[in-house]
Design goal:
Length: 219
């Protein structure tokens, strides 16, 4: 049992072994070790190793999270406005599904909107009424976001009429049911940027720990 205890003590960090190794060996010689002593030694070594290895990644994760939040707060505010368009189709549910999706794709292609500048999301299933199309645009001011959303909504409805007149889609109508709202507050991705910064910081700290551990193993 004493031999097993000495082997278990080798699992402690090197700094601990240098400082307390001789004292621990002397203590082992004087005691009558039991299985509980071996378990306690193994658990203590494991806890110290985890604490030593996790300290740097946790510290760099905290720093990364703070930096990410600071960057987010330092960026100019962004306002997002949205409006709703009712999409209606005649025919069976399967036909309506195909018609609605084809009409939306054709209208967006006609407007040639940049996907980074406008967000379009379909709410509801085409076979279940009503189907709503959410149109939202972000800008650096509340009024600019509202005006941009109004223009985008109008162009989508106009594009649907153009496509329908060409005969590409039939039986699908777009109708505005809610005008573009005026945002009351700005949107910031503080939580998202903080999480990204924390994750990158943790990975950087873990990489440093692994690199230093490998260098020690080779020396």
């Amino acid at each position: 049992m004493k031999r097993l205890l000495r082997v278990a003590s080798r699992l402690y960090p090197r700094a601990w072994r240098v400082r307390y190794g001789e004292e621990f060996d002397a203590l082992i010689d004087e005691m009558r070790p039991r299985w509980r002593d071996l378990v306690n030694t193994l658990v203590g070594a494991l806890i110290m190793q985890i604490s030593r290895l996790a300290l740097l990644p946790v510290a760099t994760a905290i720093i990364g999270a703070v930096v990410g939040a600071a960057i987010s707060l330092g960026m100019p505010p962004v306002y997002a406005s949205s409006s709703w368009v009712l999409v209606q189709s005649a025919g069976t549910s399967v036909e309506g599904d195909q018609r609605i999706r084809s009409a939306i794709d054709a209208a967006l292609q006609e407007t040639a909107f940049d996907k980074k500048a406008i967000a379009v999301r379909l709410h509801g299933e085409p076979d279940l009424a009503p189907v709503l199309l959410e149109v939202s645009v972000s800008a650096d001011s509340a009024r600019a976001a509202q005006q941009a959303t109004e223009r985008a909504m109008g162009k989508i409805i106009e594009a649907n009429l153009i496509v329908a007149n060409r005969g590409q889609t039939s039986g699908v109508q777009f109708r505005a049911v809610q005008p573009a709202n005026l945002p009351q507050s700005s949107e910031r991705d503080t939580a998202r940027n903080s999480a990204i910064g924390g994750g990158l910081g943790f990975l950087a700290g873990a990489a440093i720990v692994c690199g230093s551990h490998r260098r020690r193993s080779t020396t």
